[in-house]
Amino acid sequence: MRLARIRFNKRSVMVTWLISYISVLFVPIIISGVLYAAAWHVVESEVNRANNSVLEQMEQAIDNSLKGIERLSVEIALSKQVTGFMNTVKPLTDSDYYDLVSIANDLRVYQTANDFIEQIYIFYRNSDTVISTRDHTDSRKLFEAIRMKDELSYEEWAQFFEKPYIQEYAPITLREDGNSVKAVMYAKSVILANPDHPGAVILFVMKDSKLLENIPSASNKTSIAVLDKENRLVASTGFKHRPDFLDYDKFSGKNGLFIGTDSGKRAAVSYITSGSTGWKYIAMIPAELFDDKMKYMKKLIYASILLSLFMGGVVTYLFLRKNYMPIHLLIRSFSVKSGISFHEGSNEYGFLQDTLNHTFAEKEQIDRRLHQHRDAIRSHFLQGLLKGRLEQNVPVHESLVAHDIRLASPHFAVLLFQIEHFGKLEISDYAAPQKVRMLHFIIMNVAEEVIGNHNRAFTTEMDDLQACIVNFGSEPDKEELKRVAMQVKSYLLDHFHVHLTVAISGIHQEIYGIPTAYQETLAALEYRLVMGSGEIIGYDDLPSSETVRQSRSYYYPLHVEHQLINFVKSGDYEKSNALINEIIEINVSDASLSVSLAKCLMFDLISTLLKTMDEIGASSNKREFIERGNQVDRLIGCQTIKEMKLQIREVLNQVCRSIQEDRQQEHNQLSQHVIEYVMNNYSDENLNISLVGEKFGLTPSYLSKQFKAQTGEALLDVISRTRLAEAKRLLSLQKMTVAEIAKKVGYTDINTFNRIFKKFEGITPGKYKDIQ
């Protein structure tokens, strides 16, 4: 009774049953289709296997013959008689006619070497002479004998032989005794050492019948065709005309099988591709030849109908029982999950409606809670937008609407804010993450306020940075971005003493340009290494690769590094600090220093200073001082060139002051007197350690040892550096020759001067003078 009542009173149940019955009717059709497809696949595989066997044998036979012909062409091209006749011009002499006969005899020998060759011609363009195995003639007679097309004119035919170099196959029509025979021609140029010489062309003619006469065939109704890469029908048998499917481009891949039509009749077409020539070998079998093989398919269909009737009865019975199950399961599920009990005799759909209303009410409560977390979800979406990670299955415009993001124009830019100093919040009791979140909240509100109503801003956190997507409401303006960045930076500085570094991207179109804009801000922010923290850095203001390439870009030569090391060792803070400032100023003055080179400069300067400090610590009692001062960690921890400059200055001051204190305690007047004597007598060519020792009444070895202990330098090096310092000054004046300068600073031998100059300065005096 229940089933009857539901059947007649519930339309949806009737629809469900109707669909069920229709599904039962589809079962035999589906099974028959599967059986038909299986049978067709079996027949198709069998036909393809048989055709491929024929085609592979045909490919092997023809390719081997063609390779033999190509080898013969090389032998003929290397023949001295053949190449010697290329210089002959008209009129021909008796000697030339004798050569013609000799060449023709040789061609007959070559012809017998390959059964496929019908005729061999050699066309000498210089004398317009054509030699064959039978006789000799000219190009006009050759044109009458072989043509690529019947409608081809002699001038068009002659253009084929005007190519600089010929080595190709072409289908032709061979005229013999008034009859036209299809054939294939292989043409190969014979060229002398002089490329401007007209040369000659060897022509091998092979009849289609000879190419295909030994080809095995699965049936006398099987048609064979060969297509070359230019879609020309090289050879064929069994085709009364060329079908539409005989198109080279239609035979994609190395082999395959498809069903084509020839004169309205269906046929199975198999093909393979030659690995050596690229030709397509094609076999076509009429469908009528394998229709007999499809008879067993009828038996399969009959069996499938019987099976379908049986299965249809079973399925119909199951659906009759199953039709009510969906409603029954829904009622039971809703009754258990919603807590609303279902009373027997009640209306099922009424119960489902009440339960759904209750479910929708709960959904609205969930939506309200979800709305409370909208900002976090929106922020996550903006982060994915900046990084170019969007859901592929959801259109972008739908995601924008879902997150209440309305765009004013297709023009976008990105601002990136990095907190350099927390200002007033630095002394607060908040933890660092809380400080960052608080400042990001302030930056977000200030940025949205500054941007105004005509432009739109969307902010989010990105790896401890605050990113702001600017959507221009009118024409995009780079100066507008700089104004926004300056106002946000000034507001945070004036009210909270917070220092910000702001990176500005370029202006991009469409929403897909936002990830590119974000990457530009990261590149601009990285450039704070050069410009320093607390700056506004625009991506468009960064030095281009061309600017970096054209500028000097990097300046820190070896002689300057040696000079800096010596200044630090001597404890001269003023000179060492001035030299470091000069190095940094030269590198960053033209604003073309790239970030990578800036890092190299920082690493090089810090490395130089650390190596010098290590050497000072190893040679004195300063090791404990250096380790206690934690200078290494302070130097390596620098993030910008400006910060590095300040740290180096502070470390230099400590190191140099300590060295000076030691020098004042340990030094006596000897080293000073020696240096003064060297400064006053460096131009004396006899000045050496022995002469200085005699001056002060000391042996050379003792004097050297004491001087080294007091100054840290060898006396001979001091003499050389003093002379070279004066030499560099004179070289920069550009008034004296190198030889004159060498003599003036105490070197009688210019070679010695050049060697010592290059040792200390890294370059020769002549090159040093040229670069000044």
UniProtKB/TrEMBL annotation:
UniProt lineage: Bacteria, Bacillati, Bacillota, Bacilli, Bacillales
InterPro entries to which the protein is assigned, alphabetical: CdaR_GGDEF, Homeodomain-like_sf, HTH_AraC, Tscrpt_reg_AraC-type_HTH
Organism expressing this protein natively: Paenibacillus sp. SYP-B3998
UniProt keyword annotation of Transit peptide present: no
Listed transmembrane segments: 12-39, 300-320
Protein name in the entry: AraC family transcriptional regulator
A molecular function GO annotation: DNA-binding transcription factor activity
Residue ranges occupied by any HTH araC/xylS-type domain in the UniProt entry: 672-771
Protein keywords: DNA-binding, Membrane, Transcription, Transcription regulation, Transmembrane, Transmembrane helix
Keyword rRNA processing assigned: no
